[in-house]
Amino acid sequence: MMRPKSGRAPKKARRKYSIYTVVRICGIAFFYRVVKVPKYRKILGENIRTHRRGLKWSQEKLAEKAELHHNYIGDIERGEENVSVDALMRIAVALKVQVSDLTQGI
Fold first, then answer.
1. pTM of the model as a whole
2. Dist. CA 66–CA 4, nearest whole Å
């Protein structure tokens, strides 16, 4: 290994993670920056969960029908994910409901 002119070994490249990634990987909640889940996300998630349970489907089954990951469905139902229009349409089609049924109360 070649050393730079200063005589020190080069530093290893460190991988940089955002705070969000660290929280997701480690499950650490920083007391100074706790993100509050918006009310509209909770309502949307509750509506999706209500329709899914009405069909007696698991999150895995809904994820399979909607071609989404089951963890993503769980995150949406808890209001932790900002769901895209495309994903919302897939969920509505899988549940055989209108998008307006899922957004009711928002």
1. 0.68
2. 54
